[in-house]
Design goal:
Elements lengths: L3 E6 L2 H4 L6 E10 L4 E5 L5 E6 L4 E4 L2 H4 L5 E3 L1 E4 L6 E5 L2 E9 L4 H4 L14 E3 H5 L1 H12 L3 H18 L8 H12 L6 H8 L3 H12 L3 H22 L6 H7 L5 H12 L3 H13 L9
Antiparallel strand pairs: 1-2, 2-9, 3-8, 4-7, 4-9, 5-6, 5-8, 7-10
Helix pairs in contact: 5-6, 7-8, 7-10
Amino acid sequence: MSGSQEFVRAGAGLGHGLGGMVVSAVGYRSQGVPPALHRGLPSPYLTLIFSLDGPVVGGGTPEQAQGPDASRSEIVVGGLHQRPAYIVQPGREAGVQLAVHPLAARTLLGLPAGALTSDDDLVTSGADVLGKRAADIRERLCERQSWEDRFATLGAYLRERAAEGEDGTPVRSEVGEAWAWLARHRGAGTLTGLAEHVSLSPRRLTSVFQAETGLSPKQAARLMRFQHARNTVVRAVAADRAPDLARVAAHCGYFDHSHLVRDFRQYTGVSPTAWLAEECRNIQAGGHLYGEE
């Protein structure tokens, strides 16, 4: 008997009143699927997961994720990172995964995104970041019978946090404009051009940008370009088309096909072809809906 997978994307209601702070929210459920080791890929967005089943088990390497030092948490917060996180996928799991704009971290999480970036720990216990209220919300999500009700509950909780504004320190306007500029250009452009746009020296821009997000502007730009390329590939596979990687590379601003492959290897640990072979089932089932474009 083959297993089943379900992916449900939240409607606009969840993000209503949040001003783009939550970029996407996806409910997922699988049962009877062979256990696997999933690669949680870097992206230009923070990850927030509420498990509706057992704890999310993972680590920075396959060995850590499958060993005694694995992280285990019912609520997971992931910062911006430059390599894949490895998640153990059991035969049965369920949860809600959100992509959170990094410049909304102070408002929704109570700390800057840069505080979540660590070479040692790619994910953090959400209970440590969000407190007991988040654990209470998780219990309520587990009690809800429909995805619509779960999304509504989660949206109300996030709006409460946004209204409270737990970190009163605003994001510097130059950092906000720099992020918007990079997003508009999908990671293209130069650091010099970006620095001129926000009227800071490249060195000063890099310093304040990294303090806020945990990444340098160049690293953020590369992530945005990779995200654009990954989304392009995923859309092709979801439409049952073989992606033309050379065309994807040219379309997304890479020098050539080899340049795209190098970025894929850094961010996924494998080639584009190998990653697609691993993720084809999830994509065809409606996964990878975190396409924030």
